[in-house]
Amino acid sequence: MTNSKDSLAAGLLRPDGKRTYVFFMRKTSGRLETSLANLGATPVYAPDDTRQALLSAIRGWPSSTLKVTDKLTGWPSVKLDELMSEPLWNAVTSFARDIANGFRTVTGS
């Protein structure tokens, strides 16, 4: 739960022992948000081309509610209830696994 009590956040452990919060389920918007800004603060996802690849992957999600900009520090999002769609669920969980695997390559865990 975030300090504002507006969302639940999922984070990953960085090599320095701190958490980077990547995914947010927002109560006020009813959306699942992905923080490219927070990912940009990590060694593995700091390069612009790496976050551009993530943004391209997100643009490929089978979603009718996807909100995304061209900003590499943006917060792409989809409506939470649309995650009930199996194709979108599979795309989002595959993306989350890829993010986690990227962290593991840096931390060695």
Strand content: 15-25%
The tally of strands reads 4
N-to-C terminal Cα separation, in Å? Answer: 25 Å
Record the strand order, biggest sheet: 1-2-3-4
| Low-confidence segments | none
Query: Percent range for helical residues?
Result: 25-40%
- The figure for the number of domains is 1
H and E string: EEEHHEH
Coarse shape: globular
Provide an overview of this structure.
This protein has 109 residues and is an alpha+beta fold. The chain has one domain (7-107). The protein is 36% helix and 20% strand. The chain contains 3 helices and 4 strands. A 4-stranded antiparallel β-sheet has the order 1-2-3-4. The chain starts with 6 loop residues before the first strand and ends with a helix.
What is this structure's SSE topology?
Layout lengths: L6 E7 L5 E8 L4 E4 L1 H5 L7 H12 L17 E3 L6 H22 L2
Antiparallel strand pairs: 1-2, 2-3, 3-4
State the main characteristics.
alpha+beta; 109 residues; 4 strands; 4-stranded antiparallel sheet; 3 helices; single chain
Briefly, what is this?
The chain has helices at residues 36-40, 48-59, 86-107; strands spanning 7-13, 19-26, 31-34, 77-79. With 109 residues, it is an alpha+beta fold.
